[in-house]
């Protein structure tokens, strides 16, 4: 009986990639594309999207052309594939003329399985001519469009070049296409289908859940620097990303972390290109580096052992937040997504939208996206439930409906009836002329005698000192939650002064009651050490082997000038440390070790393990 496409695909998965079985709908996607069908794949980061086009490209005649938006992503993918014995290359601006010519020759002569190329280069006339020549020779296996959400003008990563990729289908309709993304709500999915002419494509929508990521939101205490350091003390020696809103803030935080003994580097678009490239390369290749960055450090971060992503400022949307946090725990190991935000974040982002030059329609969309993220932050229910709900996924966890792996599930927040406090706050905004920010309003409510209060005669207002039952920290929480719920808004024309909205009247008239989250007490923790999340539950001997294996891997990676995870993922090293294989057969049973890596590293790795005993 002839072997099926599925059988051949499973053989490749096991022998080349070292995985014993497919996950989720991977098998169905691979079979669909390998047999010539189009597909739209929505799968969370770390869910195995790359295999969905890599395997069909290897199963079909010719070379798979992969549209990828970033050079760093291409280089990492190519290096990883070459380690596995897959014939892969990229065409991008980092290659000189001779190197690019060599890649083109290999492609046209049938010596490549996968070729990664940026959309701008692919759409150039010369490159399209080369695609035509390769097609005439039967050398095009498929077109893979990675990060397909970039086609949407309403998305957070819009790239106009992506809209021109329909030319691939128009010129070569017989070549199967697969579009892939980890971040697309329902409107973005519809636009991907429309803009890329994928009406006949089969859609594969996996769960957006990343169960290995623990979500946590804290309310910012001042600038949040001390809170960040407290958080990082639980992740000593681990790789992670810290996102900040501005370039200036990135540099300040990176400097503070270095002073505190953290191995941190900055990354933003204002740094020289060579500095950005060097910092990114160091982050990808070394263990335990913390990258402090703006969202310029975005797509293409394929490092699997990122154990945490921290946001010290509020992102702009749920999609952006989801994609950025999705860079943690790509290897399936435990990871953490930590976000701190405060009233200032909300006010500044709303003012930024209002002052922008976008159309009214675009501003309305951005406000809605920000409101959705605020709802997530202020939610007292399961974080995962709220996050997945944005993508149209109903989540019902095993822990009473919650996930059991977010702050609200692990430590259910307390709430209080904030109706009267809200009425006091809104009245204070109104009676002071809707001209002041939260700091001054809190001074009025708490009866604080300041020069500004006396200057404007606000100690004579009826709202003077009526809020002494709450302290300044609690009032900041009240104002933050009033802004988050749309009962107050920032006036961009008056230095972000707070003013009432159309919804405020119902609260002032006593027609609407409000429930607020209790503000947690400010805490200062002493320096504590917690073992790495990936090291959890390892006994002393296995832990020793794990650290020794990481040192061995680092030396091998340095010798080859490739990221350490290209050699083996942390999860693979952990499995080796636990199993302590004594021969090649036992080592071959470890997930993530394919035939090529077994051949290449087994002897050295087993010798290293033997010396540890």
- Mean pLDDT equals 87
The backbone outline, from C-alpha atoms, is globular
Distance between the termini: 49 Å
Low-pLDDT residue intervals, each spanning 5 or more residues: 523-531
For the largest sheet, list the strands in their spatial order: 3-4-2-5-6-1-7
- What's the total number of strands? 17
Approximately how much beta-strand content do the residues carry?
5-15%
Q: Which second-level CATH architecture of the largest domain applies?
A: 3-Layer(aba) Sandwich
Largest sheet: 7 strands, parallel
If you compute it from the alpha carbons, what radius of gyration comes out, rounded to the nearest whole angstrom? 27 Å
Structure, described:
- Residues 224-371 form the Helicase C-terminal domain.
- It is an enzyme of class 5 (isomerase).
- It comes from Marilutibacter aestuarii.
- One of its GO terms (molecular function) is ATP binding.
- The chain has 613 residues and is α/β, with parallel strands linked by helices.
- The protein has four domains: 5-205, Rossmann fold (3-Layer(aba) Sandwich), CATH 3.40.50.300; 213-410, 3-Layer(aba) Sandwich (Rossmann fold), CATH 3.40.50; 415-517, Orthogonal Bundle (Arc Repressor Mutant, subunit A); 537-612, DNA polymerase, domain 1.
- Helix content is 45%, strand content 13%.
- The strands form four sheets. Strands 3-4-2-5-6-1-7 form a seven-stranded parallel sheet, sandwiched between helices. A six-stranded parallel sheet has the order 8-13-12-9-11-10, with helices on both faces.
- Strand 12 (306-311), helix 13 and strand 13 form a beta-alpha-beta unit.
- The protein is globular and about 85 Å long.
